[in-house]
Write a structure and sequence with these properties.
This protein is of the alpha/beta class. It contains eleven helices and seven strands. The strands form three sheets. Strands 1-2-5 form a three-stranded parallel sheet. A two-stranded antiparallel sheet has the order 3-4. The protein has a two-stranded antiparallel ribbon with strand order 6-7. Helix 4 runs parallel beside helix 8 and helix 7 packs across helix 10. Bound molecules: glycine. Glycine (GLY) binds next to loops.
Amino acid sequence: LQASDFVVSQLLIGDGERFKTLGTAEHAIGQLSEAGLERNDAVLALGGGVVGDLTGFVASVYLRGIAFIQAPTTLLAQIDASIGGKTAVNSPLGKNLIGSFHQPSVVLIDIETLSSLPSRELVAGFCECVKQATVASRKLFVETRDFLDRLRSNRVPLISTELQKLIAKHCSFKASIVAGDAQESISRTDRRSRRILNFGHTVGHALEAVTGYRRFRHGEAVGLGMLVAGELSKNLGLLEELELKSLREAIRLCGPLPRVDDLDEDTILDLISRDKKSLSGQVQWVLLESIGHARILDGKHVTRRLLKHSLRSSWREI
Ligand code: GLY
């Protein structure tokens, strides 16, 4: 950027959800002000989801909003978090409790950045790829699963044209959903509403919270959450066993997931019932009718007993 005559100031923030706070945002805003940023300047987020969420939030409130650019460096951020303008910081009362919608002017992705990621970060990113493909279409699901299969059997390297194309397809799917429902309308329950992107998140968030955000990477928790949402869909008679098997297989191909067998089921169930995306006190479940067809179901159809049974059976083989 400097070589192209831009005036650049840098600000480093700590890596991890615990740095995504109002305190860090206030510090960053102070730095923007000291650097003399005006309304026609821009902030560029170079990093993973935490950096993107925080930068977007800061850009949305500094001088009532300046432009920002997303340059995501993790797989999860490249296919999901950098697209769609969700910005946030955490509060002691909840993850992403404070935030805004502020669309990036540009999302710039270079898959070479993935070559330095630790393998767990990749597993987490692959889980989000499976999540997105499962609610998108059978075609994207099969393409994602086939890539993972070939990667796991060393028939394709990670940094490859195949991955580049796959990420581009994920980005266009996510952009199409956002274009149709940018602010995640709460009244929409159709299979193209932005809410379907929360597949696996109800249980995933509870897993993150019950372990104090220390054990799971977000994508890993979503991987485990999808297993439960799939099992629940089958137990409610919405999803065929064979479809559930395909979903399980795709999640298995993402890589090893952290253990869950020592976690207290009742605490998880209590946390689920307090999910922040609940409406009128009812948890909103994103379930599956088939691969590529998500469905939003009000929590009154899901008894605690059924949920407990689904938790147990979905994690038995992990
Ligand atoms: N990560 C889900 C969304 O952007 O809506």
